[in-house]
Write a sequence for this structure.
């Protein structure tokens, strides 16, 4: 099992969610996050003075999938979240040791 | 009921109504300031605004009114209405000052200063200009025309604020040692907008009520003209700032545009009853321009004013008073020189007394929050109650 964490532009959330659901991903966890990558935020203007907003608003989506579904899921997210412009985000994949469904106490890949 | 009684009743009603509009400026200042500061200081800003209304008004009831006008009294309306109208102005003077020192000034020393300015400093200015005139016959006699207080209210508050900023200093980190300015953006733009429009509406009472009577055809016309001109100056202040912001930065900064409207409103306040219906367009526009350049000018001087009160109230209070001398010069009662003289006398008196009093208060009860309190936000230390407890603190 793997955890896929995707940091995406907030306005792409709906697209990514729909694409994931269409491809059989049953659940996901979403959070509001702030961060920056290589472009180092952007500058805004307040009362005639420019300032840098370091931490931009992003959305983090977390999904847990079985090993064989990782590549397909990554492709779905990339396709849905891509605008081609700077700040589209990043995806991280990490191994997951155990998953427990609390209601049924199922464990492992059947709980995913 | 005879005609005289009807007039008495109408003027009393008019005065109480316009006084109520002026009190709408209490939430106006409160919301404007709450939106322009960081979330960690919002409860404190609101507390200060509430405290100012209460403390300043009571100080004026007990001492200030008598210093300015002598005993309670009015021939043309209920003397209580006449008092209430004057009382409604007092809090505004200190509001102007408190907004500019928010995010670092503590509540108790501000309250002490509020008592002094509401009981003594502002009433003295009123005495010289609208009241008993203790300077009459001396070389310092103030003859300026100032209908609703471009100088008496707005630049009085502005000079007190300048003194306070010099005593208190800038917010921590605002002007870094290595030079430049660190921008501290507003936390809630909808509140800034609500506050600015509440002030705008309050201004109709502020200027309209200052005509003093509405119970004759001529007086009713003057009141309506005054309110029309007041509104026009606000409109043109907003428009000129929007144009300037776009020309200079290709962006429409709504906080500046609203400050521009308020700048126009301050500028018209000295003589809204004297102009034709077109002159306020120019007066308000110049007021807006003063705001745009004033904000960066005071930043260059490293005078930290989170709400732009120096540009809105001080610069435009001066401009509005002088504008009467330029545009409404009737050669006899109103002269440019007389207007300038009034501005200068009030400036010296208010700035010097405020500075000395704030300096002394600061020695006894430090005006400024300590470094840790300021970083954590004054809400935790001063109010024990954060305005937005469920939000992560911004910045």
């Amino acid at each position: 099992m793997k955890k896929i964490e995707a940091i995406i532009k907030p306005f792409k959330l709906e697209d990514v969610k729909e694409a994931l659901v269409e491809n059989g991903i049953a659940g996901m966890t979403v959070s509001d996050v702030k961060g920056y990558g290589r472009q180092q935020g952007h500058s805004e203007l307040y009362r005639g003075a420019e300032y840098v907003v370091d931490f931009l608003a992003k959305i983090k989506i977390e999904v847990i999938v079985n090993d064989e579904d990782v590549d397909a899921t990554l492709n779905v997210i990339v396709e849905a979240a891509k605008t081609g412009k700077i700040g589209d985000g990043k995806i991280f994949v990490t191994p997951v040791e155990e998953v427990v469904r609390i209601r049924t106490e199922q464990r492992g890949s059947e709980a995913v | 009921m005879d005609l005289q009684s009807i007039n008495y009743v109408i003027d009393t009603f008019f005065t109480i109504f316009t006084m109520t509009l002026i009190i709408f400026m209490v939430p106006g200042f409160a919301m404007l300031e709450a939106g322009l500061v960081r979330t960690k200081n919002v409860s404190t800003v609101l507390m200060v605004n509430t405290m100012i209304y209460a403390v300043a008004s009571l100080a004026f009831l007990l001492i200030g009114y008598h210093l300015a006008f002598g005993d309670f009294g009015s021939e043309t309306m209920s003397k209580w209405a006449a008092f209430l109208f004057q009382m409604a102005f007092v809090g505004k003077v200190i509001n102007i000052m408190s907004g500019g020192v928010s995010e670092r000034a503590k509540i108790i020393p501000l309250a002490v200063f509020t008592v002094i300015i509401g009981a003594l400093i502002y009433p003295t200015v009123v005495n010289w200009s609208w009241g008993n005139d203790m300077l009459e016959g001396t070389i310092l006699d103030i003859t300026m025309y100032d209908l609703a207080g471009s100088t008496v209210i707005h630049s009085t508050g502005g000079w007190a604020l300048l003194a306070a900023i010099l005593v208190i200093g800038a917010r921590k980190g605002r002007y870094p040692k290595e030079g430049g300015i660190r921008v501290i953006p507003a936390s809630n733009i909808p509140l800034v907008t609500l506050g600015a429009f509440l002030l705008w509406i309050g201004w109709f009472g502020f200027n309209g009520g200052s005509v003093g009577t509405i119970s004759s055809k001529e007086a009713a016309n003057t009141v309506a003209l005054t309110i029309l001109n007041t509104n026009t100056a606000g409109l043109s202040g907003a428009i000129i700032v929007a144009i300037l912001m776009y020309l200079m930065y290709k962006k429409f900064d709504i906080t500046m545009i609203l400050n521009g409207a308020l700048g126009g409103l301050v500028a018209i306040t000295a003589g809204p009853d004297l102009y034709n219906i077109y002159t306020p367009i120019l007066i308000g526009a110049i007021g807006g321009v003063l705001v745009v350049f004033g904000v960066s000018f005071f930043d260059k001087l490293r005078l930290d004013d989170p709400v732009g009160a120096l540009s809105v109230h001080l610069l435009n209070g001066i401009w509005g008073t002088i504008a009467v001398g330029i545009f409404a010069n009737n050669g006899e009662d109103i002269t440019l020189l007389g207007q300038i003289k009034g501005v200068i006398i009030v400036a010296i008196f208010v700035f010097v007394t405020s500075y000395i009093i704030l300096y002394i208060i600061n020695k006894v009860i430090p005006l400024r929050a300590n470094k840790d309190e300021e970083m954590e936000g004054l809400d935790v230390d001063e109010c024990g109650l954060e305005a937005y407890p469920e939000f992560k603190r911004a910045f």
In short: The longest strand of chain A covers residues 56-65. Chain A touches chain B at residues 44-51 (CB under 8 Å). Chain A has one domain: 2-111.
